[in-house]
Specification:
The chain is α/β, with parallel strands linked by helices. It is about 30% helix and about 25% strand. Strand 4 and strand 5 form a beta hairpin.
Length: about 280
């Protein structure tokens, strides 16, 4: 969150409105071809949504629009019925490659950043705020690491710390950009155990991922992007052969899964900032 975002008054909510509403959103970087084009959708309270698509499809761009980091070139983005930006109810976890893990900050300090977003930059954190930090770390199983430098942790542990930051912030909407990339299966399962707890509290969660099988198994609905919104709904409705061909073309490998289902993996290279 920017300095201006920390100083301004938080946006109000219309709790009968969708948590996220995008209307004909298009985003262009420096006048180039659109990274997102004419995307319209609604996301409702308590949903766990996977944002999928090939590299460069606009997944990260969509999350940044929802977070208020990027303004649409055209169209409208709303959170609880009000314009995106300035909402302290949003927890945002960027891609790990976009974080300076060498910056000297402890796990507790990272989580306290969530309280700063909640209480404001000019107010000093008090005992109650540090209790929020402790409780948030406890919920994600990271109390033993609270005094460690964030860069000393594994990738899965770092993701859990960022979720704790959102908990300390008392976020109602959690956005996670490729949080599962590079994590082994036990680390991924630990993340989903925490996301299951958040779902029980009706927190809304949007996660971008390249893993279509995981997206199909673990999420309520899928957004399939290739700059435009190709499909949005339950996995069986979205991951049709026609939609997959539109999104991935030849960049798709279909593998037999152990449970008889098809495991679908995007073979495009990762690392496009506009993905």
């Amino acid at each position: 969150m920017t300095l201006a975002g920390l100083l301004r008054r938080p946006r109000p909510h219309q709790h009968k409105a969708p948590v996220v509403a995008l209307e004909h959103v298009t985003v262009r970087y420096n006048g180039d071809a659109p990274a997102l084009e004419d995307v319209s959708l609604d996301v409702h309270r308590g949903e766990r949504i996977a944002v999928v698509g090939p590299n460069g499809a606009g997944k990260s761009t969509l999350l940044k629009v929802v977070a208020g980091i990027l303004a649409p070139t055209t169209g409208k983005a709303e959170i609880y019925g009000y314009g995106a930006g300035g909402h302290i109810c949003i927890g945002y976890v960027p891609q790990r490659s976009h974080v300076d893990w060498k910056f000297p900050v402890t796990v507790s300090d990272v989580v306290m950043m969530g309280r700063v977003a909640k209480i404001g930059l000019l107010r000093q954190a008090g005992r109650a705020d540090w209790e929020h930090v402790r409780a948030s770390l406890e919920q994600v199983g990271m109390i033993p690491f609270r005094n460690r430098q964030i860069g000393e942790l594994s990738g899965g542990q770092q993701q859990r710390v960022f979720i704790a930051r959102a908990l300390a912030q008392e976020a109602e909407l959690l956005l996670m950009d490729e949080p599962l990339t590079g994590l082994d299966s036990p680390s991924q399962e630990a993340i989903f155990d925490i996301l299951d707890l958040l779902k029980a509290r009706e927190m809304t969660v949007l996660v971008s991922t390249h893993d279509l099988q995981l997206a199909s198994d673990k999420f309520d609905r899928l957004m399939l992007l290739k700059r435009r919104l190709i499909g949005f709904g339950h996995p069986g409705e979205v991951l049709t052969p026609a939609n997959l061909q539109r999104a991935y073309g030849t960049h798709l490998t279909v593998l037999p899964g152990s449970d008889g289902m098809l495991a679908l993996s995007d073979t495009c290279c990762e690392g496009d900032d506009h993905g």
